[in-house]
Amino acid sequence: MKIIKQISDMQRVMKIEKQQGKKVGFVPTMGYLHEGHQTLLKEARENNDIVVLSIFVNPLQFGPNEDLDAYPRDFERDEEIAALRGVDYLFYPTVEEMYQENRTTIIKVEQRVDVLCGKHRPGHFDGVATVVMKLFQIVTPDTAYFGMKDAQQVAVIDGLINDYHLPIDLVRVGTVREEDGLAKSSRNVYLNQEERTKAPYLFKALALGKLQLEVGMEVHTVKQEMEEYILLHTGYKAEYVEIYAYPTLQELKKVKEEESIIIAIAVKFSKARLIDNIVFSYSKGE
């Protein structure tokens, strides 16, 4: 595995690999790799000749009073995991390398961002789209792997690829969970012991919502039932409980047979804001 820190070096080696007909799989991350990231790397390794992993904590997607400085980092551990997972190139640029002082543009995301986390974090997905576009231009992958734990991010990247006609296949990889259902996340380390025992109720609330939709309950009723369930079992009020079409993230008042649906939730614990979701094709129960 080779570690590359300069954009020009990354572009040079990718040009050579592509000229040799190699298929490149790309996994962009902000580091502090967990099993969810490793699943992305496993998928990439199994389906590509070359695997590129990027680690870059992107300041553009952190708003005022958010946890940029506190975001967990452990590059030595990440390097070991990357090597074990068969990564060929680890792209590890500095902020100064990625964002020169004379930067003149930023991508503005116009749709799929006024709901869920985007509603509460204005500008966040502009930062995501900008850095992902830069990484795509640097790495020039054939396939890019994103986890569905952040399904809104996947929807935004889906739109980015389609809008700019990027020759990249977006591979959506299912959320990796602990045995008790909690979605794996770098932010789980911020949960105290009591919160850790309550956090799995987020996934249980999603399962409850899915079941209620399938037996014909109205969308607004399902959302209310889920909000009450989360408050009862965690002691925290949900920041949001939403049900939308996916990946358009358009509001649903009623669900239709065979329609792709996302149920998404966010809960702010004392020091950790957790998100979770399930995406499924709606089929009304008998």
TrEMBL record:
Gene this chain is encoded by: panC
Name the UniProt record assigns to this protein: Pantothenate synthetase
Keywords assigned by UniProt, alphabetized: ATP-binding, Cytoplasm, Ligase, Nucleotide-binding, Pantothenate biosynthesis
Highest taxon of source: Bacteria
Pathway terms, separated by semicolons: Cofactor biosynthesis; (R)-pantothenate biosynthesis; (R)-pantothenate from (R)-pantoate and beta-alanine: step 1/1
Binding site for beta-alanine: Q61
EC number: 6.3.2.1
Additional comment: The reaction proceeds by a bi uni uni bi ping pong mechanism.
SUPFAM superfamilies: Nucleotidylyl transferase
